[in-house]
TrEMBL record:
Keywords noted in UniProt: Acetylation, ATP-binding, Coiled coil, DNA-binding, Helicase, Hydrolase, Isomerase, Metal-binding, Nucleotide-binding, Nucleus, Phosphoprotein, Zinc
Keyword Nucleotide-binding applies: yes
Catalytic activity: dATP + H2O = dADP + phosphate + H(+); Couples ATP hydrolysis with the unwinding of duplex DNA by translocating in the 3'-5' direction; ATP + H2O = ADP + phosphate + H(+)
Protein name per Swiss-Prot or TrEMBL: ATP-dependent DNA helicase
Amino acid sequence: LLFLAVLEEVLVSIENELQAVEMQIQELVDKQQELLQKKMRVKNLIKQSSGDLEAGGSKDTETSSEEWNKKDFPWYEKIKTALQSKFKLQKFRSLQLETVNAAMAGKDIFLVMPTGGGKSLCYQLPAVCSDGFTLVICPLISLMEDQLMVLEQLGISAALLNASSSKEHVKWVHTEMLNRNSQLKLIYVTPEKIAKSKMFMSKLEKAYQAGCLARIAVDEVHCCSQWGHDFRPDYKSLGILKRQFPNTPLIGLTATATNHVLKDAQNILHVQKCITFTASFNRPNLYYEVRHKPSNNEDFIEDIVKTINGRYKGLSGIVYCFSQKDSEQVTVSLQKLGIKAGTYHANMEAKYKTKVHKGWATNQIQVVVATVAFGMGIDKPDVRFVIHHSMSKSMENYYQESGRAGRDDQKADCILYYGFGDIFRISSMVVMENVGQEKLYDMVSYCQNMNKCRRVLIAHHFDEVWDSANCNRMCDNCCRENACEKMDVTGYCRDLIKILEQADSMSEKLTPLKLIDAWSGKGVSKFRVPEVTPPKHPREELERIIAHLLLQQYLKEDFSFTAFATISYLKVGPKARLLKNEGHVITIEGITNRKSVFKVKPSQSSNLKGSRENAQTVSKTVQDSAVKKSQEHKRPSCGPNLKAKKPKLQAGGNDQPVVID
């Protein structure tokens, strides 16, 4: 019997060892997949830099931008004259000449250009210089209306067709579509028009046969792809355009798309072969900064007001908020503290939106406090700051929103307030989207990072290679004087898993806030685990650790759907099983001064007690110092020195900022 018991112990030991080996194999497989993806990205970038990469992989010897950056094309004088006389511009911006030349040559084109780079000109100028009309597909009526207003001011004939168009207007547009001598150069429609209007498709067919359909422009082309950050089902129906009108050139435009999204969009649109122009995502005049979001709302608003009244006194800016309610409340708070602010969101009446927009454009309002509804088609060049009251739902959204600063190429600031609770507010909103949670976690990863250059992080997301040496200290991480060293949080992860497993055994679910309370020895007593010692770190550090474990899949979100809300809970994640191996170590980068030490030491890597003691050497003083450093309002040696000419803010009267009750 004794011998049998020994054998059973040996068997259990072997099974445990096998399980540990299986986990290590899984870790290696995960690492292999990650490296293979990196390898593919680098290979694509090598091809792209040599001018051989197409969005769909097909090769075209004319994809190099140098081939199109010439002034010897037969139409050059015509486009130069139109640029100056019609659009009142003296020169082309980066990649505009190349794109216009390729469009005039009748090529299919995909253009990736940053917000404010001048994408619209790349199809508007060829439209003015060509016979027939250009069909423009846009996702938002407000964006099309803004473009029509600008074109009207320039004396360029353009029309918009939507559900509210009068019968007379529709009839006139349909007639002009078949008139070879028509002055109508641009017709704007939503993708729904292509998908649902047989009458309009019939008119397009006739225009194509008559040689009047000069080209098709698909704005925000990333909306075609389900892997894009703003997938719209009606965009998938646009594939019919190339099938029905194969000889009409198409140009797809976007500010934010990875190579994967471009390839998917090309396949959906049935573009067999195209020229792809990709401008750099780098905006050298923008300073990127991530701040900790104060939990106390009064402190938070006070910090925003100090920033606006200090660094941006009298300068124009935008504050982006997560919800319409947030935007209204923040507007009221800013106004009470003397900031000329106006609210802007989708549910406001058109007259109020126009009033805020015009008030801001004429500098009667200093700050627009808005949701994402504000910005598309907005072309105010002297925006000196964009503040995110909450983080965006994706890197693509953040890049577009922050990109509305500094369009005059003068220095401007992009400040993002990162709060732990915002992760789960946004996650509950995007959970039903195809890649919504994945893209949100990319955004969280950007906010969590306290070491890498912000430009490197942005470039990596958009498949671009970037050397942090070229940042020129134009982001908070490149300006950081304190060291970033690795902190061992393995013991903390084990503690959190114990808390979650105990809750699960009681058929209870823990929200992120309840989990932190239980871990800190606060809140409902039944959720606490006696053998878990509450950590001594500030709450914001505990939040960073939990967010890190969520990103690394040691924890995962679980959602509960009610009639009124979607609630996010935290559960044990798929990688938690790796902790059964005592040698497994989890680390997170944290800020410390150069004298502090919380590096992971080899002797502590498998010592749970040592790990915990090692992690707790981070003092609140150091953390407070780091946060204070990152939130300094004056940066004499780092970031932009904003001494732009201050526009005069007009006071009082009927131009007071609009607040929606």
